[in-house]
Amino acid sequence: MTKYIKATEAEIEMVMSSRIEMLKVVNGLPENTSFDNELLDQTREYFSNSDQTTILAVDQEVVGCATICYIKVLPTFSHPSGNRAHIMNVYTRSNYRRRGIALHMMEMLIEEARAKGVTEISLDATDAGRLLYEKCGFTRSEEGMILTL
Questions:
Q1: CB-based contact 75:82 (threshold 8 Å)
Q2: CA pair distance 2, 118, nearest whole angstrom
Q3: Beta strands at 61-72 and 52-59: parallel, antiparallel or unpaired
Q4: Residue 104 CB burial class (10 angstroms; 0-12, 13-18, ≥19)
Q5: Quick one: pLDDT band at residue 79, thresholds 50, 70, 90?
Q6: Superfamily for the 3-135 domain
Q7: 145 falls in which pLDDT band (50, 70, 90)?
Q8: For position 148, what pLDDT does the model report?
């Protein structure tokens, strides 16, 4: 039976192992790929000290994860609180897919965002994830512009 955990500092290594697994799978990297220490250290720092929530799906071991990052921006007419969020790293191991795990994690994150007064949630979707996000009420949008410094 899958249980869902709102990760705390005590689960940081579970979060890290799930994120590393997700990065390898999503990017098509070999299992033996190692990551730069700066990436690992900054990731631990982010999960420990940033305004975010990570949900872990656990069935003996971590089989899924999803993170929402809270962002405070200058308020606008349509978003007067300035409370926004971005969902990242929605991942379920292949042998656990199509069981509603990702949907349940998404619902938990969306509900928490509502409770925090978030007025807009964004995410970047792969083709494989679009149907899930549409079930959650997300609509497609065009990306804006970016400046890389």
A1: yes
A2: 28
A3: antiparallel
A4: middle
A5: confident
A6: Gcn5-related N-acetyltransferase (GNAT) (3.40.630.30)
A7: low
A8: 52
Q: Is 144 a residue whose pLDDT tops 60?
A: no
Are 120 and 85 in contact by the 8 Å Cβ rule? The answer is yes
Domain borders along the chain are 3-135
In whole angstroms, what is the distance from residue 19 CA to residue 15 CA?
A: 6
Tally Cβ neighbours within 10 Å of residue 11.
17
Record the pTM. 0.90
